[in-house]
Design brief:
It is a single chain. With 312 residues, the chain is an alpha+beta fold. The chain has a domain of 214 residues. 31% of the residues lie in helices and 20% in strands. It has ten helices and ten strands. Helix 1 packs across helix 8.
């Protein structure tokens, strides 16, 4: 197998982990036999993602970026991301789901994998649709609209430059360093971009500029089908999230041996216990799905990652 090290995607960072999973998803849909693993960074400071190509077609950084540009250009055509600006309308969601199921056996429709990652219409009240726990947006933010806008921007070709905007953006995300020079919102997935106004020199009304790594945010969004929603006792749950001591945590494993998308799907649904070690997991990280915005706000963000002990 031929490795492609992605030094910008660190294992102990929630956005970077999601981005690595998204890179795998995009590579597989690029008609390549690709697997994902992790290796110790050269300075032994942590883990970095590695994609392994098993086919005769080498997976290089350049052709991976080409695949991602094509993916960004085509994504707005995916019905699962175009039925609404946010995950809220139950009737529209249910209607699209019924339509997708009816034609699922006759065509290749990406919506069949995307829709379960957004919500489920069998829980909640009759009108309001509860979104995936990976939707951390609130207020004026629109999760689906943000993904469509980001995709369109990354595939855009400026008049003065012959290459799409996403070429540089994806290179920064994949191999680093992350410079945080982009204005798009990180959708709450990056603890480094959260603005805690009590500790800043600006009023919230004056501090409106977002700073993010948009290539990484796009890649992370492509991992959503790996984290489907499901119902438990009448409540919506999302794969990868765990209630620990009364709080909502997102947790993810790090492993060395390269695994396929299907194996990754199986790994992500396993409980957080010592049996993960028998499956080749070296460490598990977790981050709190925290509330912010004070008593009047209802915003959610990922906190900083920490190791989760596998001693049970």
């Amino acid at each position: 197998m031929k490795p492609l090290e992605l030094s910008g995607l660190k294992g102990n960072h929630p956005l970077a982990f999601l981005a690595a999973c998204g890179a795998l998803m995009c590579s597989v849909e690029g008609n390549r036999d690709v697997k994902l693993g992790w290796k110790r960074a050269n300075d032994r400071s942590g883990w970095i993602a590695v994609l392994f190509s098993e086919g005769t077609d080498d997976l290089t950084l350049e052709n991976l970026i080409e695949t991602l540009i094509l993916r960004a250009a085509n994504l707005p055509d995916c019905e699962a991301l175009g039925w609404s600006d946010k995950i809220d309308n139950r009737s529209k969601f249910k209607a699209l789901g019924s339509s997708v199921i009816e034609r699922a056996t006759s065509c290749d429709d990406k919506s069949i994998t995307w829709l379960p990652a957004l919500s489920s219409d069998i829980v909640g009240n009759k009108e309001k649709l509860q979104p995936t726990s990976l939707d951390l947006t609130s207020g004026s933010q629109r999760f689906l609209k943000s993904l469509r806008s980001l995709s369109a921007d990354l595939s855009r070709v400026p008049r003065r430059n012959g290459q799409p905007v996403g070429v540089a953006a994806f290179r920064e995300a994949l191999v680093g360093p992350w410079l945080y020079g982009d204005q798009e919102h990180s959708l709450g997935w990056d603890p480094q971009t959260q603005r805690l106004h009590a500790l800043r020199h600006m009023l919230p009304q004056q501090d409106t500029q977002n700073r993010s790594v948009r290539g990484a945010v796009f890649l992370a969004s492509q991992a959503l089908p790996l984290f489907p929603c499901f119902a438990v006792h009448g409540k919506l749950r999302t794969t990868g999230f765990h209630n620990l001591n009364g709080e909502d945590w997102f947790a993810w494993p790090i492993w060395c041996e390269p695994i396929s998308v299907n194996t990754l799907r199986s790994l992500l649904v396993q409980p957080l216990n010592r049996q993960l070690e028998q499956r080749g997991v070296k460490v598990v990280y977790k981050c709190l799905r925290a509330h912010t915005g004070g008593s009047d706000g209802d915003y959610r963000v990922f906190g900083n990652a920490e190791e989760h002990p596998l001693d049970r």
